[in-house]
Amino acid sequence: MIAIQEILTSIDVGLIFGIVAIGIYLTFRTINFADLTCDGSFALGASVSATLIVNGANPYLASIISLISGGIAGLLTGILNIKFKIADLLSGIIIAFMLYSVNLRIMGNSPNITFAESDSIFASSCVSFTIFSIILCLTLIIVYLLFSRFGLRLRAIGYNKQFAAISGININSMTIAGVSSSNALIALGGSLFSQYQGFCDISQGFGTLVIGLTSVVIGEKIFSFKKEPLLIFSCVLGSILYRIFINVALHGNSLGIGTQDLNLITGLITIVAMLIRKKYKNA
Amino acid sequence: MLKLNNIFVGNILRNLNLVIDRGECVLITGENGAGKTTLFNTISGIIKLDSGNIILNGQDITNFPYYKRAYWISSVLQDPKAGTIGEMTILENLHLASIRTNDKSKKSIDFFREKLSVLEMNLENRLEEKVKNLSGGQRQALSLIMATSADYELLLLDEITASLDPKNSDTIMKLVEKIICEERKTCLIISHDTNYIGSFKGNMMRLNNGKVEKS
Description:
The complex is a heterodimer of chains A (283) and B (215).
Chain A: H1 4-30, H2 38-54, H3 59-82, H4 88-106, E1 112-114, H5 127-147, H6 149-159, H7 161-166, H8 171-197, E2 199-201, H9 208-222, H10 231-250, H11 262-282
Antiparallel strand pairs in A: 1-2
Chain B: E1 2-9, E2 13-20, E3 25-29, H1 36-44, E4 51-56, E5 59-60, H2 66-69, E6 73-76, H3 90-97, H4 109-117, H5 136-149, E7 154-158, H6 166-183, E8 186-190, H7 194-199, E9 203-208, E10 211-214
Parallel strand pairs in B: 3-8, 3-9, 6-7, 7-8
Antiparallel strand pairs in B: 1-2, 1-4, 4-5, 9-10
């Protein structure tokens, strides 16, 4: 049986990864850009904030700097794609690949950093309440932005580039802005996750894309909001559900399932979510 | 006034020259592959020209990127699905079109309603409806309203009746005539619709061998 505490932990982690899911939604769904930078930018956010906190920086400031660092990583991916005409997939892979070395450098050539929870933004109050407040504020800001003229332009380039062009939208700038914003959010997710754990590891970002995409798909399937910007909420809810599914799956001791099977289970959940989505679309 | 001087684009447009006076409406015809859509894309800035220059109302816009040209040039595309965003509402599409104007009065819902009421399709009361629910004719009419609701100096219409049935095609043609009469803006229409060509009263030209000739 799953204990209440474990469900609460799933909700906390689900909320944090909700930001990652929103970031992935912005690129893969809103602007239709297959960005693979996320594995690198998640670890970048984690390593930047862990290093800063260990060196005595304010955890809120460390989170903001992580957000900016992710934004820069996304900016570079966008520039590779738009200015140097490198395919979106490859641009993301190159930057994520390079970020591995950058992250190691940031962490002082150490593969992991540990710090006390008391140094993180979750130290002063109830952890779940802090996470919930941060995620709610961020989600509301993003929904507002997507409803604004900026969001309208961002969504337009994802749907119809030709129409966007004749409407006076600078497609290149908006694409770069979209990829940059997405990675800023993913890096913030990485920062919050490392602070939640009090631990940062160089390999922390592996699988971020799959986890984020699965959350997006689960959210879209289960919570079908009519207004598109409101789908942002479904990303967060999908992320929470994903964490609960994983938790339930990992409790299958009788089937011999253990933590070593995490990636296998994640992959299976992704496939099932995709198949349900496909069937739902074809129906 | 629109002036195209010695335009070269690949092997499609070769030393093309064209002058359209301010407020004049010109129809350009031509066979498939003659370069009509290339001409449209060249003027709107989607395709870069190899040489030559484009002057609109005395201003050389040759080096202006497409998104800057959109503030002077309003375009309607051949396919109504390409000229609107089906996943967005009618209102959101109109808001997108109003990016090209700084006039606040042209960004208001009342203004959009007034513009849509001209269509007599009851679209002014369906602002929150997704555009994908509209018929091809309604989408093309909306596209036309979107193009003319913002400020513009030149109206570019590319085969706008090509993907419509005769009834919708007739409705759109009448709407174009009405807009041209009311707005008195420079207009370039590209079409090979024989019905439209037959009823067109303005200046007609033909695109042949990469050049524009008097029809």
